[in-house]
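Reopening this one. Same input as before:
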Amino acid sequence: MDRTPGRDAVELRVHGISGVTAERILDHPMVVRVAGDTHAGFFRPRPGSGTAGGATDDVAVEAYRWGSLTAGAAVRTASMLLLLPFMLSNLAIWLRPPGRDRWGLLGALCRLLAGTLTATFMLAAVGVTLDLVGWQCVPYPGCRASRPYLAWLHTLPTGPRLALLSIVPLLALRVVWAIGTRSARAFEGFGPSSAQHRPGDRTASLTDADFWQDEQTTGWLRQLHVVLGVGTLNVALLAGISPGGVGAPGHGLLFGIAVGLLVVEVVLLALPVPASPAAARRFLRPLWAVTVVVTVCCLGTATLADPAPAGLGKLPGYEGAAAGVVATQGVLLVVLTVVTYTRQRAARGDERPFLRGLGTPIMAAAAVSVGAAFTATLVYRVADVLDHGDIPDPIRPNPPIVGPLEPPVAYWWAALAGLAALLIGAAVTSATLLLTRRRRRRLAARIIERDYPDVPAQDAHRLRLVRETIARSRITEELGPVLIAFLAIASLGLVTVAFDVIGIGPTQLADRLGGHGGAAAALAAYVTDAGVWVISLLVICLMILGFRAYRSAQTRRVVAVLWDLGTFWPRTVHPFAPPCYAARAVPELAKRVTGLTARGPVVISGHSHGSVLAVATILQLPPSVLARVSLLTYGSPLQRTYARLYPAYLGPRTLRDVGGRIGWRWRNLWRDTDPIGGPIFPAGPDGPPPGATPPGGVDIRLRDPRSLTIDPADTVPPPIEGHWPYHTQAAYQVAIRELTDRSG
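Same output, byte for byte:
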């Protein structure tokens, strides 16, 4: 109904990514926090210091600053780079096609794939400590020369040496566990959970009251992944101390129990999360008890094992374990691709998702690729240091006094596949941009002709600049083929799994297939070395970025952009992923909006990614509160990015539901020059039902720049504003006024 707003009407601004300051959100130099804390708070202009920039008469302006959740603590932000593979694996399930996850198949596949990443992490730690140091380096005088910190290990028999070095992977697992647990203290557990908690159905809908409360799911998965990591170490240790093989007398029974424990953990990962903490404890307590007993027995067996020769090749069983994990990841990716593609084909015509529904396997492939890059870099760089700078391979082995010092064959193939992926990906990206350039320019030209029909000759250069800006802003829509190409490259890389299993590396394969005196093998060796260095440089750059994030607040905000996008969703797949900041931001926004509506109407004003938080908040509000809530979005990626990548959660149906919940008191401002934002309801079947929206519709297009000519009172032409700011235009204040007038 129409009403005259008073000072109790509030415009609540929610910023986008990159952790901007409250002063910038409010466009005011003096602010004061009125609610929240240092991690996330609500701010207003200091009383007596004037109004916020872009404020509407008789409407108070308040800002919600949540950026410190991802860009606040230096240690937290820097350490999150180490968790990148885990974050990508957790993100995969949220890109699934719309519809129910029948039998929980997609969730089970994603959880199993996440489990292989934990196994990969532990195998990398085992490869550095037990294999490279304990087995391949210490027995050779040339390797331990000038290294007193390794020389003393030579006095220990092989079994005790491996048992002692096993402490390092256990500590590494504990550190990764601690990073996620410590970071979550400021993020999660905000607000009470409802009595009807359904962790097994966590990916159902954003309207679920407990959608953002993931403590129980994360706790269950964390226990399983820790046990899985410890079990991986146990199996590797037993294989290394068994001179007669893994089935040798005296070790066969313990090895069988350790492998059986791994199988149980894998089965539990595939099953839904127990419905209550009591049910989870019934599984976890005996599992932990058996794991502790088996681990103690493995360490004790290794300590008391008979002396065995070391340095003869790689650690027994390690090559096969690394190849087995790679093979398992390949099979899971293939199955995941088939399942998601089948699901999208069964979807209705108006629900056909972007990328043919392959967002889940694409993100899963990215997680596996980044995990392989981290693992290969760690193992190769340690091997390089131990080799005193030399990089051996089957064609150019180390001298006998130094030892073999060779990582598993799987890592050689990973390096070669990584180099191919970079080269082919760069080629596909360049080709895509070149082939779409003419089409994007034609679209930009039509927009220019409509917005600026009569342009003086002296402004022609300005017109060309605007046209190029609009053409570049359309690049986002052209990245689909690049992502599909990445999935194809990752799938082709699975062909190397067969060579991993039988222990044939790139140089060995080239040596067998090629002739010419080993020229093909030498070329393969140099190409593989190049792949190793390219991947290593990329990972090292990430580490440098993490170090700079620790030292520099500006770099910390840049790094936080990645986490703003990747940690929006709860952790329902990998518990070591960075915590979900929306687990605090959404309930906190809902609580604040509920309190403000008791005194008057509230317009939630969301910029960029803040519009996603605003929509998620509205889906959590009760009907009694929604009657006094309106929504203003601008520079919003809701339809352009989120509805396409996350069709099961923020697709057209969900966006129409949001509009209906607030009585279509929704305005969306967008510009053609904005590379991120766009219309929420473009013309077509995905728009709102006829007659549901107010006159003029939800979307309001703003011409940018406002003019090509210089205003007589100015010295320069109006700037191209693109993605920011929006509150400086009159259309913004008109929308706020209209929405507050229409609020109940």
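So the earlier flakiness isn't reproducible anymore. For the record, Strands lie at 10-14, 31-36, 41-45, 60-65, 602-607, 629-634, 666-671, 699-702.
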